[in-house]
Write a structure and sequence with these properties.
- The chain is of the alpha/beta class and 314 residues long.
- The chain has 2 domains: 172 residues, Rossmann fold (3-Layer(aba) Sandwich); 121 residues, 6-phosphogluconate dehydrogenase C-terminal fold.
- Helix content is 48%, strand content 12%.
- It has 12 helices and 9 strands.
- The strands form 2 sheets. A 6-stranded parallel beta sheet has the order 3-2-1-4-5-6. Strands 7-8-9 form a 3-stranded mixed beta sheet, with helices on one face.
- The longest helix has 28 residues.
- The protein is globular.
- The structure holds NADP nicotinamide-adenine-dinucleotide phosphate.
- The site of NADP nicotinamide-adenine-dinucleotide phosphate (NAP) has 25 residues, from α1.
Length: 314
């Protein structure tokens, strides 16, 4: 593939930053890659994995002369990072991000973008419960959606260039309004994470069933929730702090529907239970048919990258 950007700078080099670096390099999409991260330990991990051409703990140094800058830190760090790098951005550069929330990102970052720099927020809808540079792998974005949420009036060419980059990484790109994005991910991703955190937390707090029994007899259902509930605490803290309204709206609907289910169980309404479970089974089938999941018992999450197994979860 041809080079789309001479220099790519990634600020934050965990699961997402590392995967972007590996995929962009493997596919020859960028001339050079610079990465910046906060801690020396993370920078060393990135260096040992050979993710980039240059490494720095100074984000301004990393973004100097970059044609594409992607913020890959937790959402809560975007604003201070942007304040830091604004003066170091090259005129004509594209600034994007990988954040799981978009309304908050547009609101806080758009005013900080210097004149002549193009801001195209993004969200690759791909991930795992692992974090850090060693968790990244180049196939992460293949067959996944990447949603871009440019504001009206954003330079068309910048949006096209960033779309072409994500498509070359293997993603399908969709443009969406930031507020609508936040509603969509609230129900497809954020509320499910909250439910998983809650169910695992409840099991952990139980007094009648011991902790060792929960672990010993963890059947498929609980085990699958623990995978989601193992996701990065800081990243997910920031998601709920910054997508509060959409999450509360969806959580309200969820709780209403849960009450209906609770009543069906209490009144032994088997028809209501079976009708719902038949409907939900069909939804899983359509997700598999759409290529967003496999029917394999490991949910298609066998990791292709042996490197990650050498690095302990942080
Ligand atoms: P990660 O593996 O935890 O990596 C986070 C990176 O950001 C690390 O390089 C970390 O540096 C740096 N960082 C953390 N706090 C920082 C701070 N306060 N200031 C500056 N740098 C900081 O995270 P990730 O999973 O790649 O997620 C990155 C972004 O992608 C998040 O915004 C998330 O919402 C989004 N996203 C994640 C997923 C997913 O499934 N994980 C999916 C789609 C989008 P140090 O280690 O040096 O502190």
């Amino acid at each position: 593939m041809s080079v789309l950007f001479e220099k790519l700078a990634l600020v934050g080099v965990g699961l997402i930053g590392s995967s972007i670096a590996q995929a962009a390099r493997q596919k020859g999409l960028v001339g050079q890659i610079s990465v910046a991260t906060r801690r020396a330990k993370t920078l060393d991990e990135a260096r040992n994995l050979g993710l980039a051409d240059s490494y720095s703990q100074d984000a301004c140094e990393a973004v100097a002369d970059a044609d594409l800058v992607i913020l890959c830190t937790p959402v809560g760090a975007f604003e201070p990072v942007m304040k830091d790098i604004a003066g170091a951005l090259k005129p004509g550069a594209i600034v994007s991000d990988a954040g799981s929330v978009k309304g908050h990102v547009v609101k806080t970052l758009a005013p900080l973008i210097p004149e002549g720099v193009h801001f195209v927020p993004g969200h690759p809808m791909a991930g795992t419960e692992h974090s850090g540079p060693g968790a990244g792998f180049p196939e992460l974005f293949e067959g996944r959606w990447c949603i871009l949420t440019p504001e009206a009036g954003t330079d068309k060419k910048a949006v096209e260039c960033l779309s072409a980059f994500w498509e070359a990484l293997g993603s399908d790109v969709e443009l969406m309004d930031a507020t609508h994005h936040d509603m969509v991910v609230a129900i497809t991703s954020h509320v499910p994470h909250l439910v998983a955190y809650n169910i695992v937390g409840t099991a952990d707090d139980m007094e009648t069933v011991s902790k060792s029994e929960v672990i010993k007899f963890s059947a498929g259902g609980f085990r699958d929730f623990t995978r989601i509930a193992a996701s990065d605490p800081v990243m997910w803290r920031d998601v709920f702090l910054t997508n509060r309204e959409a999450v509360l709206e969806m959580l309200g609907r969820f709780l209403e529907d849960l009450s209906v289910l609770q009543r069906a169980v209490r009144t032994s309404d088997g028809d209501a239970l079976e009708t719902l479970f038949t409907r939900t089974r069909a939804i899983r089938r359509s997700i598999i048919d759409a290529g967003q999941e496999t029917a394999a018992p490991d949910f298609g999450r066998t990791q292709p990258d042996p490197v990650r197994r050498d690095i302990k979860d942080r």
